[in-house]
Structures are given as structure tokens and as C-alpha cells.
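Incident review: delayed structure delivery

Summary: a single-chain prediction request sat in the queue longer than the usual turnaround. Root cause was a stuck worker, restarted by the on-call engineer. No data loss occurred. The affected request and its eventual output are reproduced below so the record is complete for anyone auditing the incident later.

Affected input:
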Amino acid sequence: MVQSAVEWSSVYSFRFTVLIISVLIATSSCSSEWRDPLPVSQEEFLAEHEDWRSNREQALVTPPGGPVLWSGLFGLPQGKTAFGSDPALPIVLPAEDSPALAGTLVRQGQDVHLEPASDGNVHFQDGPPIEETTILENDRSGNTTYLSLGSLGMRIHSEPGTDRLWLRVWDTDLPERETFQLPEYFTLSTEWRVSARLDRYPELRSIPLADITGGMIEQDAIGELVFRKADGEHRLIAFGNEQSRSYFVSMWDSTAISETYQAGRYMRVPAADEDGWTTIDFNRSYNAPCVFTAFSVCSLPPLENRLDLAVTAGEKRPEKPAY
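Output delivered after worker restart:
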């Protein structure tokens, strides 16, 4: 009897071990299941994309952010930089908008002041003329100072991860404000809506990125978006943080050889849910600002975001990119 009890004990122990292993395998299998993208009807998909494209076209010609209207980008060295319509000045503006000397920008470290000329006619945007030395907050300060001079708008521009500063100028009277049209798109397809899993980094990573001007900037990345397409698994570095409502993604794919912008395209991807999943809609991949203006500091995709497949979705390149 004693031996029989021992034998039964061994049998139950073996069965319990098998059960635990089976549960672990099943759990692992469930956790590795690939989700489908969030469901959407064809009608809703087409309507939402049409709204998105219409809003994008309007944003590209709306100051101060619309790059189609940008008409100047001038690097600011330390010290004084005068601006106006005098062709001998470091920054030359159109004579129909600016007097010979409109003012002087004084850079000290990362601070920039405006010393207005006596008849400079520089105003706060939608406000009074500037008549005394004024601090100009850059466009990453959260409290940007916007200036106006005739039909021109101006602000101090900065980029993350670099101490370079620029004077950005735009012109609200450019005819492109009324005539601009987006370039062609690939045919819309829900096949290019794919689910993606966010593989978070242990902590934010600062990723160095080359920019279109030949310089370098840095952007914080939260992790990598993993998705499946064309019988393969692919990864894209996602820029953002835990507070981001969406991630910024810059990518390059083989359509850049002949159909899309040679330097790559951008996307916004909704932030991952609590389980780490989101949906990438490649139909909403779009051209960077430097496609529409030479006065931009566009970051280029990191090498990790060069995809080994052709993304036949999203915005194509125009006939004559600006950069």
C-alpha cells in the first residue's frame, strides 16, 4: 500500500506539472497573438481621410505654421544681426514690407532681443508697434513672440537638441495661399491600416537626427512600433513620451526612388493603449515641410526607420519639391 501511495503521488505530481506547463504555453500563446487594427467601415474610412486631407491642405497655407508661406530662414549668430530692406544688411527683407533698417536682433547665448529702429514699423502680431528693446521668446518656449512687418510675419525658430537659432519669416500675401494644392496620393486602401505593438524603451532615448540643412538635431523616442506587413515584421522608432497623444514617425521606403519624396515621409500615430497596441494608417503618411519650402529645418528619418518594403500609400512627391 505504501508503495502504491507513492506511485499515485508521483502520477499526480507529474500531471500537475504538465497542467502548469500547458497553462504557461497557453498564456504565452495568447499574449503573442497579433491584434487586428481597430475596425472601421469603408464609408467612415474614406470620409475621415477626406477630412484629414482637407485639414492638412488648409494648415499648409495658414500662418504662422503653414510652410507654403514661409519666405525666409536666417541663422542667428551670437551678437547683433540687423534686418531690413537694405541689401547690405545680413538679413534682407522685401522693400514693399520693410524700411531700409527695421531693427536689430541681439543674441546672447540662447536669448534674443529686438532693438527696433526708430521708424522700423515692427509690431507685435495683431498688436502695437514695438518701440523699445524687447525679449523675443522662441517657438519652443511655449510662449512664442510673433512679430509683423507689413505683410510679413516673423518669429525666432529653434529645434530640439541644437543651440542653433533662426529668424523665420512668412508672407501672408503670397499667391500660393489661394492656389496651393496638395500633391497626388496613392489609392486609399484599408490594407495599409495595420496594428502595431509599442516596444517601450526602459527610459526615453535621445536620438540624433540629421536635418535637411546639413546640421543635427535630437528628438526623444519612447520606443519602437512593431508591425507586420508583406510577410515580415518591421520596426519604426516612435518619437514622443508617456504624455504624448500621438507619436511622430519619420520613415523611408523604396517608393522614394521614383514616387514619393526622396528624403522620406512623416506620420502621426495614435499613442498606444494600456496594453501597448495602436493602429498605423500609412494612408496618412505625408510630406515634410521642406517639400514645400526651402526655408525649413526638416529632420531626416533615422537609419532604423528605413523600411525594406514599398509603402504604396499616402502622399506622393510633387513635380518640383522645394528642397
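Verification: The mean pLDDT is 92.
Action items: add queue-age alerting; document worker restart procedure.
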